């Protein structure tokens, strides 16, 4: 049974299906969250909040004909919970600095390798040529589907800076692709 089917069964109140969904997806979710936040305790809290929200809102996933990707939906819920936690905890700067320092020293994640392989060729080369701060903004807004405000909170930078970096990145990609 795939994750979509498990969520649909969980929406009908099937605890075993929800437990299976959690068992399958929680390690993946924790790894993705750690890439955004180096605080293990905060990551654990966000994982717990995310699955509580998923249990409560599984019906909206099951009812949403447009929502076809359970992991994408799960990540959207988690990313928003992480942004909320940053706001609550006031850890914008320290969490961002710690995550940046950790990711700079770590080997590329499988997710990044897959993204690089998928975006090989001209698009991959254009993305690779972007400055890291521009790629961060694109990743948060495009891949993670966050709003300008959520990206601002996640990266610990002003909203105007997010907009400027997103615009610069788009212009640079357009120029590289033409």
Automatic annotation (TrEMBL):
Domain RNA polymerase sigma-70 region spans what residues?
Answer: 22-91
**Gene Ontology MF terms:** DNA binding; sigma factor activity
- What keywords appear on the UniProt entry? Sigma factor, Transcription, Transcription regulation
Keyword set includes Transcription regulation: yes
Annotated signal sequence range? none
Query: Do the record's keywords include Secreted?
Result: no
Pfam families per UniProt: Sigma70_r2, Sigma70_r4_2
Record domain RNA polymerase sigma factor 70 region 4 type: where: 123-173
Query: Its Gene Ontology biological processes?
Result: DNA-templated transcription initiation
Entry similarity comment: Belongs to the sigma-70 factor family. ECF subfamily.
Name of protein: RNA polymerase ECF-subfamily sigma factor
Its source organism is Actinokineospora spheciospongiae
